[in-house]
Write a structure and sequence with these properties.
The chain is of the alpha+beta class. The chain contains 16 helices and 12 strands.
């Protein structure tokens, strides 16, 4: 058991779950539905409809309406709710935006449904300071990109992270500290135990088991006698042990960084210095993730909120700061005439390809100056910077 706990301590796993996703999208697109009970699913046909609820807003849930519930039952619980047919094209559009945000924080993103995903941020928290900081930035970016809220759980493994995200809903952030998995779970009711369905919970209840802590206390052998092979899995999960890796389910298409100015500015020297800083941070992430790209894109938003992008594609993939900075600066100088103030600048790299990932903590000597800088930055943090920034 101690060995498994050590494994847990070495990982930082996030579970990101959009809040009442389908219903929230409908409220986003239709302001008149906000703060009203919204049910997405089959036609209720005045309480005679067949089919089920796909999603219910939190206002609808106060009436006892839940997903997978018969739509006729939902109608009888709240006949005054707004009943809508699903718009899967729109949900998929926003789901892609959410997953694109997650891609910016780690190369290991496992999408498990249209509105939720696991992210393995092990190692990358050294870039973003902590799992909590990563979670806060993800929540903020999702809101900026989609106008929707997400709940995030942070833990040492997938099952505890998923439970943590559920505990904080809606718009929550719940953290389980490494080594505290069993204590985090022990008082929770059985419905939170991942892998325990309705029939399993009924069987556990007949055994006198009421909480996840009770499952852990029963012991591995007792659970194996009752549930055969699945008994061991239940016991491990109840103890907060889950060694399953986050498995990347889709290929990253781009990576980017941006900064918003306050106040807006016309100072081109200052803007180019910021582009330098963005190039530095962006390419360090690229090397950490083991990716390089052929297309560099400058994003610029002016004081009137008009937004432009300019790109240049190279014949070969790059991930060094000098090249990315030079291209971004070239694109900026060709575009900006100084007439309006600049509100935001950003740099993106696309047409990506996977290259070898930088082993930041290996004892091997880095093979070039960029890698040496990355390794020192990871070890000493903000004490290490480029001379140009001083």
């Amino acid at each position: 058991m101690e060995k498994r706990t050590d494994i847990n301590r070495r990982r930082t796993i996030l579970h990101v779950d959009m809040d009442a996703f389908y219903a929230a999208v409908e409220q986003l697109d239709n302001p008149e539905y906000r703060k009203r009970p919204v049910v997405v699913g089959a036609d209720p046909a005045g309480g005679r409809g067949r089919g089920v609820v796909s999603a219910a807003s939190y206002e609808a849930r106060r009436f006892g309406i839940r997903s997978a519930q018969p739509i006729s039952r939902a109608y009888h619980l709240c006949p005054g709710a707004v009943f809508l047919k699903p718009r899967f094209g729109r949900y998929t559009e926003l789901s892609k935006k959410v997953m694109a945000v997650l891609d910016e924080f780690s190369p290991l993103v496992e999408q498990i449904s249209i509105d939720e995903a696991f992210i393995d941020c092990t190692g990358t928290e050294r870039i973003f300071e902590s799992g909590e900081r990563i979670a806060k930035e993800i929540k903020g970016r999702i809101m900026d990109e989609t106008g929707l809220t997400a709940s995030v759980g942070v833990a040492s493994n997938k099952s505890v992270a998923k439970i943590a995200s559920e505990l904080g809903k809606p718009d929550g952030l719940t953290i389980c500290p490494p080594g505290g998995e069993r204590e985090f779970l022990e008082r929770l009711p059985l419905r939170y135990l991942w892998g325990a369905g309705k029939k399993t919970i009924e069987r556990l209840a007949r055994m006198g088991v009421e909480s996840i802590g009770d499952v852990a206390a029963r012991g591995e052998e007792a659970l194996e006698r009752e549930f055969k092979k699945s008994g061991r899995s239940l016991w491990l999960l109840a103890n907060g042990v889950d060694e399953r890796p986050v498995v990347c389910t889709h290929r990253r298409k781009s990576i980017s960084e941006e900064i918003t100015f306050f106040p807006d500015t016309r100072d081109t020297m200052f803007i180019e210095k910021v582009l330098f800083e963005i190039s530095d941070r962006l390419t360090r992430r690229m090397r950490r993730f083991g990716i390089a790209g052929r297309t560099v894109t400058l994003k610029i938003r002016l004081e009137d909120f008009t937004t432009f992008s300019r790109s240049k594609t190279l014949p070969h993939a790059v991930r060094d700061m000098k090249t990315v900075r030079a291209l971004a600066t070239e694109l900026f100088r060709a575009f900006y005439d100084g007439e309006k103030r600049v509100r935001l600048v950003g740099i993106g790299v696309s047409n990506l390809e996977q290259q070898e990932q930088l082993e930041l903590f290996s004892e091997d000597t880095p093979r070039d100056a960029e890698r040496l800088f990355d390794a020192m930055k990871e070890k000493y943090g903000d004490k290490i910077t480029r001379g140009s920034f001083l």
